[in-house]
Amino acid sequence: GQQLNQSPQSMFIQEGEDVSMNCTSSSIFNTWLWYKQDPGEGPVLLIALYKAGELTSNGRLTAQFGITRKDSFLNISASIPSDVGIYFCATNTGANSKLTFGKGITLSVRP
Amino acid sequence: GAGVSQSPSNKVTEKGKDVELRCDPISGHTALYWYRQSLGQGLEFLIYFQGNSAPDKSGLPSDRFSAERTGGSVSTLTIQRTQQEDSAVYLCASSLEGKAFFGQGTRLTVV
What we know:
Distance between the termini of chain A: 40 Å
Helix content of chain A: under 10%
Structural class of chain B: mainly beta
Distance between the termini of chain B: 32 Å
Strand content of chain A: over 45%
Oligomer: heterodimer
Strand content of chain B: over 45%
């Protein structure tokens, strides 16, 4: 089946630093989504990308849909303690096709 | 409410008992997912409903697990003869046009 690769499993950064995480696959996709899960909560959609090369920002977050349609990255600038959580990427091949999630990256931010 | 609602939020059950977990999706959403998440881990896909199509049950870990979606809306995940390894958070998500929105989850503890 389709697999998404997110690594490393955990990242540790200092408050104020920028961080970049990416998500790769051997397959081509039409949509890339990024989610964040806070402890004890369900994942929340951060950014949705629909076109190859698309670059979208949401506050301190920026995400891009790779030109090859096989990858995407998420940048967080000027990190703050509330950025801690698990970040998941997700993709599908069409609006009515099943979403596939990556295994997630756990982000820790040191004050 | 406007979001995905799951009940109960917490469930403690004795080993060997059956449990039912409920998911009320966002009105009008055509797709519904169930996932399982162990502490600090990623999302383990269980089952996917899309409209009137046959559900994708490929993620159900054993025949003790089943799910149904009545009238294209509310879904129930049933676990029969629960085991301690079934302890986890069970997350439901509903989706429209490829974007999934999650509930808060049901934390299941089997003692």
